[in-house]
């Protein structure tokens, strides 16, 4: 009998702990992420994730977990100590009921009810209802507007230009001085302001501006895919592994594929484990990029596992080692594309290096300020190199910052529209119209190619539009909300063609039919 009570007690505790976990996790994800991103990482490899991020997640949720657990366990604690019987009269009949009865039947029933309630609340907090609705509603939008680069004339100049593509983690225009088009009341990233202002910056206003976030492009891996393929990174319905070497966007024709075909040497450098989120597979399958990441630095003896900080190694080491890699590529006879992804400005609060100045009240501002200086120093170094005259440099943020929205309260004007940073340096052509453009990360794909002097038939690739041209982007044609909604829906074309690379078989079958 005593053993049975112990088992019952343990079951109740497990049920309540699980209930608390669901409530806490659902609340946190609702405030920080979108369901598409969470499902993407749950379905795929998250090897290489920062230990600091994991500790932050745990730290952020310890107190809410304790509070929620105490709230839901209170009725059971009362039932163990006391119970109260009430009598009420209904239609001249006396009805008796006990509040918090002292019975295991009540405790088990209560625990199961709370678990069911947490599942329902979590279902709506996470937006699973909307996700499922979108997932099973097929959209023809991608199929109708997708431009396959394999079937499009892409003409390179006789003297092919090098391309240095720098992804700036979480770099948006909010921290630019509001006098120059940003949202901040004072200067935090003045060097990046100047780089955008004095070079080509595609803007949604007549000042410094940028790209609008759109569905399935708003986390790092998705942004890298969007800007190099013109495609969103959508969760496949019928696949268990999305980022495996065989399946990761196998049917897409990307920037790496184009450059590889034209004889470019390609290298990707990240200060973390390139395996995280499928970046390794994406860039090796599309262009056969040579990868330099945290593991490479260890293998080459430049650091040890004990030297790891943040996600791997900091941006000071990233830019220092990048110089060596670029000089090596520049000594080859072939043109090159060197792609870099910074990491210091990743949320929460970023990674503040020891040698960074402490100019502002918050760590995040100081991290951004230091990043701005690091990028500027790197650009100055590039300009001193012999190969620079024949090299285009593209600076783009991967997505908006994921820092708590409360961080921006009191600083940003409520009417300010947050957009993603971009600057194109040493470009051989002039845009028809750089200001008052409505565009997304998808439009970067053909625009990056155009920035190295490439001519594209129709000025469109993937779902992107060449911003150097006067051709309207998809969101200029249809509106941001409409395109955003369509990209959130399921696409049979995307699943069948982009994921499995059966494009030509599909076309043949349609012709037979």
Could you describe the 3D structure shown?
There is one protein chain. 43% of the residues lie in helices and 11% in strands. With 513 residues, it is α/β, with parallel strands linked by helices. It has 2 domains: 2-135, no CATH class; 145-273 and 297-337 and 348-512, Alkaline Phosphatase, subunit A (3-Layer(aba) Sandwich). The chain has a 6-stranded mixed sheet with strand order 6-5-7-4-8-9, with helices on both faces. Strands 1-2 form a two-stranded antiparallel sheet. Strands 3-10 form a two-stranded antiparallel ribbon. The chain is globular and about 95 Å long. The N and C termini lie far apart (71 Å).
Instruction: Name the average pLDDT.
Output: 85
Write down the Rg: 27 Å
| Sequence of secondary-structure elements | HHHEEHHHEEHHHEHEHHEHEEHEEEHHHH
Molecular shape: globular
CATH topology of the largest domain: Alkaline Phosphatase, subunit A
| Low-pLDDT regions | 237-241, 502-511
The CATH superfamily of the largest domain is Alkaline Phosphatase, subunit A
Count of individual domains = 2
CATH class placement of the largest domain: Alpha Beta
As laid out across the biggest beta sheet, the strand order is 6-5-7-4-8-9
Q: What is the number of beta strands?
A: 12
The span between the termini is 71 Å
């Amino acid at each position: 009998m005593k053993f049975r009570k112990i088992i019952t007690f343990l079951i109740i505790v497990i049920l309540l702990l699980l209930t608390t976990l669901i409530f806490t996790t659902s609340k946190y994800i609702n405030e920080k992420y979108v369901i598409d991103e969470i499902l993407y990482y749950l379905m795929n490899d998250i090897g290489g994730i920062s230990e600091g991020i994991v500790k932050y997640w745990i730290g952020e949720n310890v107190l809410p977990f304790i509070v929620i657990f105490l709230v839901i366990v209170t009725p059971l604690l009362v039932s163990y100590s006391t119970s109260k019987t009430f009598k009420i009269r209904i239609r001249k009949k006396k009805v008796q009921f006990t509040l918090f009865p002292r019975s295991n039947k009540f405790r088990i029933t209560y625990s199961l009810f709370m678990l069911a309630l947490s599942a329902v609340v979590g279902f709506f907090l996470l937006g699973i209802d909307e996700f499922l609705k979108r997932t099973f509603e097929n959209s023809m939008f991608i199929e109708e507007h997708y431009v396959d680069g394999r079937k499009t004339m892409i003409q390179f100049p006789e003297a092919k230009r090098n391309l240095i593509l720098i992804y700036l983690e979480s770099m948006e225009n909010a921290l630019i001085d509001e006098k120059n088009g940003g949202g901040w009341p004072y200067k935090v990233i003045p060097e990046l302001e100047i780089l955008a202002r004095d070079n080509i910056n595609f803007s949604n206003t007549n000042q410094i501006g940028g790209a609008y976030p759109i569905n399935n492009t708003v986390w790092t891996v998705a942004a890298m895919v969007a800007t190099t393929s013109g495609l969103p990174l959508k969760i496949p319905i019928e696949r268990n592994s999305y980022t495996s070497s065989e399946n990761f966007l196998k049917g897409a024709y990307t920037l790496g594929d184009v450059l590889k075909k034209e004889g470019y040497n390609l290298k990707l450098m990240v200060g973390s484990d390139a395996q995280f989120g499928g970046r390794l597979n994406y860039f090796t399958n599309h262009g056969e990029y040579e990868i330099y990441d945290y593991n490479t630095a260890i293998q080459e003896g430049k650091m040890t596992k004990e030297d790891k900080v943040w996600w791997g190694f900091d941006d000071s080491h990233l830019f220092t080692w990048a110089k060596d890699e670029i000089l090596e590529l520049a000594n080859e006879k072939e043109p090159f594309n060197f792609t870099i992804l910074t990491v210091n400005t990743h949320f929460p609060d970023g990674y503040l290096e020891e040698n960074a100045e402490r100019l502002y009240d918050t760590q995040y501002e100081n991290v951004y300020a230091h990043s701005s200086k690091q990028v500027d120093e790197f650009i100055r170094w590039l300009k001193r190199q012999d190969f620079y005259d024949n090299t285009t440099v593209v600076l783009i943020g991967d997505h908006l910052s994921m820092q708590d929205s409360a961080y921006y309260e009191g600083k940003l004007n409520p009417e300010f529209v947050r957009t993603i940073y971009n600057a194109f340096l040493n470009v051989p052509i002039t845009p028809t119209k750089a200001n008052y453009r409505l565009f997304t990360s998808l439009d970067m794909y053909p625009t990056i190619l155009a920035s190295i002097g490439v001519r594209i038939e129709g000025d469109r690739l993937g779902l992107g539009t060449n911003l150097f041209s006067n051709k309207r982007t998809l969101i200029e044609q249809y509106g941001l909300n409409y395109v955003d909604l369509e990209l959130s829906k399921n696409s049979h074309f995307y699943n069948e063609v982009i994921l499995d690379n059966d494009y030509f078989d599909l076309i043949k079958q349609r012709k037979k039919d």
